[in-house]
């Protein structure tokens, strides 16, 4: 079951002059056809590509209902990471060992990283979404919320169609247009698709080698640093300056070591590497050190909880022990979180939409207010903080 918001590059696109939207859907499709012909595709091919396109109200319903999960990290990670998923992941690494060896050689992306995405996105290919992809992309491009994001994806799908790698009538995937085992948008497939099994096509729905190789190339394109770690569980001293923690703040590994940061197992990375200390549920909960590759995860998904869980799961798939959950202070309910956001906004903080979600803006605002009030500035909101505000 696909559980997450659109993953790849949706927030990175830039509006273009062709971001028309709205109006009667048939007229909108005629505009797409005219643009496709103007871009150099012959009219017969364009007409064949768009012949079956339909507006899909279920796509809009899914779009309006999406939201970053409100569950805290411990609950979220325990729900997603099961023994079955770990066992199947380890079976997959054996089955596709030569593919993962090639990926590690060519892109420097560790197998656990791809296995975790594969598991979370589609349960190792078991459910890849049942929305018609062209209908989904056209519906979202016609909708006037983000046409600049989805309209270019339609023309990318047309290019895939011309290569024989997309069937507008039968290609299905996620509601936001992602396709295949690791859920890639058409433009990402054009840029990063790899024929991993040597059959002359890039088929991310049916070929695990194609999907895994393409996912690895995309991570490399997004800035993955070959052969470097991404996340590691650590122990933190009780007298740490908590205001230095959080994904937006970095020191070198050597500096963190001098402050008393120690790995729970293994060794920390090279002392000169920049890193952040991540406390998803405050100073009394789990603690991780995040290296530069951790930031690449946010190019794949914008949810902090999802990203941290995926990065941690990659470690588990490669043999890391279960994290020490500690004894974090109780968090806030959804209603309390919304009230907190309103109070933070009233104090001049940019927390974005008041939605009850502990996102990056709310975490930063919480940490700033904790510091101002003389509280441990670990960015974890509690009822006591809410009361103080």
From TrEMBL:
Signal peptide: 1-19
Gene Ontology MF terms: peptidoglycan lytic transglycosylase activity
Superkingdom as given in the UniProt entry: Bacteria
Organism of provenance: Antarcticimicrobium luteum
Highest classification ranks of the organism: Bacteria, Pseudomonadati, Pseudomonadota, Alphaproteobacteria, Rhodobacterales
InterPro entries linked to this entry: Lysozyme-like_dom_sf, MltB-like, MltB_2, Peptidoglycan-bd-like, PGBD-like_sf, PGBDSf, SLT_2
Cross-referenced NCBIfam families: MltB_2
Coiled coil: none
Keywords recorded for this protein, A-Z: Signal
Peptidoglycan binding-like domain mapped to chain residues: 333-389
Span of domain Transglycosylase SLT: 27-314
Pfam families named among the record's database cross-references: PG_binding_1, SLT_2
Gene Ontology terms describing biological process: peptidoglycan catabolic process
Protein name: Lytic murein transglycosylase
